Amino acid sequence: MDPLRLLTRSTKFAKKSTSTGTQIHTPSSGPASNPQLFDHGNESSILNRKRKRGSETVAPSLDFFGGGASAKEKDGQQKEQDALEEQSNLHQEQAAAPVAMSTEESKQLLGRHKIKITLFRNQDEAPTKKKKKEKAVKDKKSSQSGSAQATPLYPAPVSDFNSLAPRYRLSKALLRNIKDNGYSTTTEVQLAALSLLLDTRAHLLAQEQSQDQKQQQQEPVLDVDLLSIAPTGSGKTLAFMIPLIHALVLARRSQTHSGPQAIILAPTKELASQIANEGRKLALNTAIRITNVRKGMHLGSDSSPDADAPEKDVPPVKADILVSTPAALKNAMGDTNTTSHALSQIRFLVLDEADVLLDPLFRDQTLAVWNALSSPSLRLGFWSATMGSNIEELVKATIKDRAERLSETTSTPVQIAPFVRLVVGLKDSAVPNIDHRLIYAATEQGKLMALRQLLHPTSTGVDKQPIVRAPFLIFTQTIERAVALHSELLYDIPAEAGGISRISVLHSDLSDTARDHVMTRFRKGEVWILITTDLLSRGVDFRGINAVINYDAPTSAAAYVHRVGRTGRAGREGGVALTYYTDDDVASIKTVANIIVASQKQKGAAGGTTNIQQWLLDALPTPSKRDKQQLKKRGIETRRSASGKDSKTGKPKARISTKSGYIRKLENNRKGAVAASRNPQESGNASDSAESFGGFEE
Ligand SMILES: Nc1ncnc2c1ncn2[C@@H]1O[C@H](COP(=O)(O)OP(=O)(O)OP(=O)(O)O)[C@@H](O)[C@H]1O
């Protein structure tokens, strides 16, 4: 088995034939034939119609955040050269470009791909102090009359990456990088978001024209702030990264400014590092620099280099795009009085996994970063596979508050951009292209036995095929449980298959170096089974994961969606999501069951299988809103500590172990003695760290 080379994010797969000649269809068995989730192979012929050379006028070069080409762009010889190159590029590509689509055709196509786009035009201008009162009255009136300013939008979809060149004059290097990374067909979210973000102004212009000619003539047309909800693994990174790089390439031609202009925030170091890597691949040879913010970096002080600032000896970070967790960025910002200039230059803020970044856990840090950015033309992007309506409300309120604050401190009123919501598929649902299974294991012991059986090499399903295949992820509720499960399963992989080196554990108590090391080993395919917590549930892309096992049931619907979304990436079929539940979960598991049923319905009757029968759905109790909140916050109580004591009886209930306490004590003593004899200094940590653990003699 060479399964795990496929965990790398490379799209270049070698063709392999199996010795038996039968092709087993799993996410790691090759690239997805079509990265789209809906309307497979049923693309409109409109998309394939070719445009006659020179018969269409090409849309002017537009960018999402308003950094579009200006007259200055043509200054200098190099710039002229670029323009000429792109012009010739344009002519070459024009012959293959699809014809412009009518609104009706766009509407049909977006509908078939289950894409819904809504434009909210609230107040474009934040009120100055004077106008505030007037505005409050107006707002009240409009909310009373129920005049929701929501309009559906139907931008012409970008069906494949080749059509970007003639439509938007993307830089040659960016186009080449997209191609070299193996991307050709766009996924649903890319299909809509690229069109919106690269072409916002042109589209809004057309929209307004048809609705209100007069208004269109008087109002300046603005770019938009975008909130995008699209399934896990549907390529959201590319959907925000391509327009961002394009905007910065254009801005670079017209400005001499150097220094960060965009910030991408992600909740974990692993995700931030992955986004930075993806970005760098796309930005190769475009002169756009992307940096993953790490400890010790800072944004640069406004004061002179000799000023008595703690960071005076550290050069400011050199980058156009910063990718960071909120905490790391707050550190890099340092005292915002001294970094105010750098912060005022940031024109784009993207929140990846926006719902978690705006959840109480990260909210203060995220808002601190957002509110510190003082550019009046800051444009925003919010991306996730799940987004509660409370998050959308928070986003809208924060945009408004910030604009009002800025309007009061600056004399010119701040324009609030139109707000667009893009939803792909059923909101907050799990990917439909995988097989979801819910398994009752009664007790903690039952769960461990069931998992052991699953891992056993001879274990097969009704089709005589293994139920899960490596590589896969196992999620637990807490770090302690991840560590405990790891030590339980350590010897379950036969030596001839690589033994203990094939299984590892990753959680936030490990050092950064250890976390990087485990990630690298898993991506390289050295580790086949990775036990982890919700740390890895968000955003992390291991392309060839065949299965996700929820050893401990997730504590919210969103957690389920994101955990299981680590398989079935970019439309790949054959992934399995398996969730165990015990008596402790019965009161709350209906949330997961409902998500599974909804995802299977989305796929249609002919789609994947689900073991959830109607009688089970009817029998499971519906948790109250309060119960759900409590569960999300604390998880299942008996799993919270390593001892897993039942709060009523005080007896251990949820400990991960098949052995009695006495046997474990003897074993631990023996392990400790062996470890100490090998390396006396490290013996204290031996059982805690998967990375320092070298295995014991039997
Ligand atoms: N158009 C495409 N064609 C083929 N593969 C693609 C395409 N776009 C993205 N991918 C691949 O799909 C995988 C998932 O992409 P990405 O990580 O951006 O998903 P995501 O929507 O951000 O997922 P999540 O919600 O889990 O964060 C990546 O391996 C990426 O390289």
UniProtKB/TrEMBL annotation:
Q: Residue limits of the Helicase ATP-binding domain?
A: 217-405
Give the EC number(s) listed in the UniProt record. 3.6.4.13
Catalytic reactions on record: ATP + H2O = ADP + phosphate + H(+)
Record's compositionally biased regions (Basic and acidic residues): 71-82, 624-649
- Segments carrying the region annotation (Disordered) are 1-106, 120-156, 620-698
Is Plastid given among the entry's keywords?
no
Q: Where is the composition biased (Polar residues)?
A: 8-36, 678-690
| PROSITE patterns, per database record | HELICASE_ATP_BIND_1 (PS51192), HELICASE_CTER (PS51194)
Record carries keyword RNA-binding: yes
InterPro entries cross-referenced by the UniProt entry = DDX52/Rok1_DEADc, DEAD/DEAH_box_helicase_dom, Helicase_ATP-bd, Helicase_C-like, P-loop_NTPase
Gene Ontology annotations of biological process type: maturation of SSU-rRNA
The record's keywords, sorted A to Z, are:
ATP-binding, Helicase, Hydrolase, Nucleotide-binding, RNA-binding
Start and end residues of each Helicase C-terminal domain: 450-620
**GO terms of molecular function:** ATP binding; hydrolase activity; RNA binding; RNA helicase activity
Record comment regarding domains: The Q motif is unique to and characteristic of the DEAD box family of RNA helicases and controls ATP binding and hydrolysis.
Give the family per the record.
Answer: Belongs to the DEAD box helicase family. DDX52/ROK1 subfamily.
Q: What does this protein do?
A: ATP-dependent RNA helicase involved in 40S ribosomal subunit biogenesis. Required for the processing and cleavage of 35S pre-rRNA at sites A0, A1, and A2, leading to mature 18S rRNA.
User: Quaternary form?
Assistant: Interacts with the U3 snoRNA and is associated with the 90S and 40S pre-ribosomes.
**Protein's recorded name:** ATP-dependent RNA helicase
Q: What is the lineage of its organism?
A: Eukaryota, Fungi, Dikarya, Ascomycota, Pezizomycotina
